[in-house]
Amino acid sequence: MELDIQCEEMSPSRWAELLTTMKSCKTIRLDDCNLSSSNCEDLSSIINTNPSLTELKLNNNELGDEGVEYLCKGLLTPSCSLQKLWLQNCNLTSASCETLRSVLSAQPSLTELHVGDNRLGTAGVKVLCQGMMNPSCKLQKLQLEYCELTADIVEALNAALQSKPTLKELSLSNNTLGDTAVKQLCRGLVEASCNLELLHLENCGITSESCMEISAVLRNKASLMDLSVGDNKIGDSGLALLCQGLMHPSCKIQKLWLWDCDLTSASCKDLSRLISTKETLTEISLIDNNLRDSGMEMLCQALKDPRSKLQELWVRECGLTTACCKAVSSALSTNKHLKVLHIGENKLGDAGVELLCEGLMHSNCNIQSLWLGNCDLTAGCCATLATVMATKQCLTELDLSYNPLEDEGIRKICEALKKPSCNVQQLILYDILWSSEVDDELRALEESKPEVKIIS
After folding, report:
1. Claim: this prediction has a pTM higher than 0.90
2. How many angstroms separate the Cα of 153 from the Cα of each of 156, 216, 231, 350?
3. Which keywords, in A-to-Z order, does the entry hold (predicted)?
């Protein structure tokens, strides 16, 4: 049994009602429910008396250190079988880390700990690392994003990594680590016996200086499938170093996020080689890099390579125009694997989207999710888009936000949605002006086709 409630104010009567339900739940999720430390006292009792409970998710509640102390009393009982604990943005400080250390040391069932968006600080996380080093700890996933960590944390983390072969996922994004610390961390990861599958280092103050060490992790950890170094100024020179590791035969990367990394079209030669030859790579994000049309054309050539198995390409806000759309269309008509294309916030215009639609209509194209927000589109391209919607049953999600489509364009899109052959289930239309009459038509459409969700 699963309890999944979000964004609900808990009255005493409602809370009492839920407590009865929780006694037999395997999963309890109560994000954004205005819970406090007093609720944690009740939850501690549930943890103690419900041995089937394996997941507890309490993100975005004002639990505080006192609340975590209550929870940990339940977590430390012999009957507890909890595996996943989510406490993101719960107003915790380093004071909670001593209590959580006790749980890590004593509770081998706990395999996931998510404590990001809390002011734990370096001192607090050092205490958590002590708990990880206990032989009883079997932690597999540790999420420490936005925890106000500094470079001083790396020595403790490396010591924990050396003793924790079970660890598979480590998220340290949005902490002020810097190159020296990241290089030290990577050297520790190479030496550690853990089979790391996910490493997230977004916005950690990384430059090209760290990329050789990150590349070494990619070469030496065949288990690593998910790497995110977005929002770091690695530049073209850093990307070239990363690609040395990414192209190594032992690297089995599947998901690569390089958003806002100061890349230019100069990086696209290396990226194209990666996309065309690394058959494990299924998802790449290049959002907010100045690739321009010339860079996109190189990527499209790679997508046409039969060896490319890419399923998701994110190139939002990359300085693209109508000029690259013929190449994108050609790639869409050739690549059978691509399912998600985020190409919004580029000046494609109606003419560019008309070209894209030629590729989308091809029998080889299997696009499921297409994002065209803020692409300078008008009603002029909506008839062609409507044809794609009504014809391509694989297309289930379409984003047209921030485009001046007006009543004429929205009506054409609505006509496509009404057709039985249209399989679009989510239509995103943020910040588009239309009349009250069209608004009524949209609401009527949602009522007649409840499987369709229109987000505006």
Report:
1. yes
2. 6, 21, 21, 51
3. Acetylation, Cytoplasm, Leucine-rich repeat, Nucleus, Phosphoprotein, Repeat
